[in-house]
Write a structure and sequence with these properties.
The protein is mainly beta and 272 residues long. It is built from 4 helices and 14 strands. 7% of the residues lie in helices and 33% in strands. 24% of the residues are buried.
Length: 272
């Protein structure tokens, strides 16, 4: 009997669900089965206490979300233990039937995680994910008439190469960490504030990233601390989206996406 035949069967089906969490440089393969499985003799999926809520089909794709529950001790759950992870997690849920001799595997959900919360005295972590279709149909802000640049640094319109050594600190050693403060060495060639508003990327194999709020000499203040303190990092220059920074720091004035001649005073506002 085919997958569909067993799926709609009243008693003939024996469903097994497969979960794939892509956490940057690592993929976790889980199954809701009572033992490890490798459908088709391929990837082995580890049995864990995982369950999910229902997924919807049709309707408003923006609302197509699913909640997956994992033990709080699981490595995926721990990414949400104290803060949001620095990398986007993708989630794929697949399904097949043990009684299907062909072991046809069907994808029932594909998307990205958006939040994680703990419940039952912090014994479980509930991870919410939104479907890829829902994310594509999200309303995005229009380009605004403002003095600051509308582009995102390093995107295809800005066209600055994030790996240009003029803007990137490569394999920088970390000399110490304290909460969301990271001390590094070997960035004396970059002026103070060069990495403010930029990004720090862990090279410990997780691909974890954090926003840099302030750069002063060899000290970086991050928006949130790393889950695991890295020994080496990559640093990427930041941009305040002003015309001066675009011209002087990045030599990219021709691609500036703002309107720097917008007056700072509202001519229609009554003077006091």
């Amino acid at each position: 009997m085919s997958y569909l035949g067993q799926e709609i069967s009243i008693e003939g089906g024996a469903p097994v669900e497969l979960y794939e969490f892509d956490i940057g440089t690592e993929v976790r393969y889980y199954t809701s089965s009572d033992g490890d499985v490798n459908p088709g003799g391929g990837q082995v999926y580890t049995a864990v206490a995982v369950q999910r809520g229902e997924t919807s089909e049709g309707g408003n794709a923006r609302e197509d979300e699913v909640q997956v529950t994992l033990p709080a001790s699981d490595v995926v759950s721990q990414l949400y233990a104290a803060r949001l992870p620095g990398v986007r997690l993708s989630l794929v849920i697949k399904r097949y039937h043990r009684t299907d001799v062909s072991e046809e595997v069907v994808t029932v959900f594909e998307g990205n995680t958006i939040s994680g919360s703990f419940r039952n005295n912090a014994a479980e972590c509930v991870i919410s994910a939104r479907s890829s279709i829902g994310g594509q149909q999200s309303t995005l802000p229009r380009r605004t008439y403002r003095s600051l640049c509308n582009h995102t640094l390093y995107d295809s319109i800005c066209a600055i190469n994030r790996n240009d050594p003029s803007f990137k600190g490569t394999s920088v050693s970390v000399s110490g960490t304290s909460g969301n403060v990271v001390m590094v060495t070997g960035i004396g060639a970059f002026n103070d504030g060069w990495f403010t508003g930029g990004e720090i990327e862990s090279l410990d194999g997780t691909g974890d990233r954090r926003l840099i709020l302030n750069h002063s000499v060899s000290t970086l203040t991050l928006l949130s601390p790393f889950f695991i303190a890295p020994a080496t990092v990559n640093l990427y220059a930041g941009c305040d989206h002003s015309a001066v920074t675009c011209a002087v720091k990045f030599l990219n004035r021709a691609r500036f996406g703002g309107f720097d001649s917008v007056p700072t005073k509202d001519p229609f506002r009554k003077l006091l």
